[in-house]
Amino acid sequence: MGSRIKENPESTFEVFVEVTRPVATDAEPQLERQFPEDFSDQETLRAVSRFCFPFSTDRLSVGLGQNFTFVLTDVQSKQRFGFCRLSSGAQRCFCLLSYLPWFEVFYKLLHVLSDYSIKSQVHQQRELLETLYTLSIPEPGCPFISACIPTSLCRTSKNSRAFLKTGA
C-alpha cells in the first residue's frame, strides 16, 4: 500500500471556512464564509462544518482559542487534513482543508485569519487567502522563503510581497 499523502496537490489548501456554532442542540453549525467562493463540493462543506463543532456546545466555555485537527479520506484514499481553530468563547471555528500535513504552518495561519475576522478585516483576510491559494508549493527539500511587507511600510496601495526561492 502506498502513501496516503497526496503527491503534488494543486494548491496549498482546498478550502477555508468560517463556521458559527449551532444555536440549539439539534441545529447544524452555520457556514458563514468560505474561500474560494466557487468551491462546490457540498458534501465536503457539510462534513467540515460538522467537524468544526462535533460536540455539544451547551456547557462549553473556551477562554482562549484552541486548535485541533481531523482527517477526511478522499475517493483515492488520500488524506485531507482539517486544521481548525476554535475562537475564544467557542462561537466560531476557522478551518483549512488541505492535502498538506503542515500542522505548525496552518495553525499559525489560522491564528492570523481568526484575528482578521475578529477585527473585521475581511479584505486583508481575503487577500492573504488568495495569495496562499495561488502560491506554488515548493519542491520537497528545496528551501523556500516568503516575506510580506505590511501596507503601512509601503508607498503603494496594496501589500508588497516578495517571494524568493533559494537553493538548487
Provide a compact summary of the structure.
This is UDENN domain-containing protein. This protein has 168 residues and is α+β, with helices and mostly antiparallel strands.
What does this structure look like?
It is a single chain. This protein is α+β, with helices and mostly antiparallel strands and 168 residues long. The protein contains 3 helices and 7 strands, in the order E-E-H-E-E-E-H-H-E-E. The strands form 2 sheets. The chain has a 5-stranded antiparallel β-sheet, with helices on both faces. Strands 6-7 form a two-stranded antiparallel ribbon. The longest helix has 16 residues, at 103-118. It is globular and about 45 Å long. The relative contact order is 0.16. Residues 152-168 have low confidence and may be disordered.
Q: Indicate the mean pLDDT.
A: 82
Structural class: alpha+beta
Taken as a percent bin, the fraction of beta residues is 25-35%
Distance separating the two termini: 32 Å
| Helix proportion range | 10-25%
Which assembly state applies to the chains in this document?
single chain
Q: Give the neighbour order of strands across the main sheet.
A: 2-1-5-4-3
Segments where pLDDT lies below 50 for 5+ residues?
A: 152-168
- Give the helix tally: 3
Order of helices and strands: EEHEEEHHEE
Radius of gyration: 17 Å
- Strand segment count: 7
What does the main sheet amount to? 5 strands, antiparallel
The outline comes out as globular
Protein name: UDENN domain-containing protein
GO molecular function: guanyl-nucleotide exchange factor activity; phosphatidylinositol phosphate binding
Domain UDENN: 13-168
Keywords: Guanine-nucleotide releasing factor
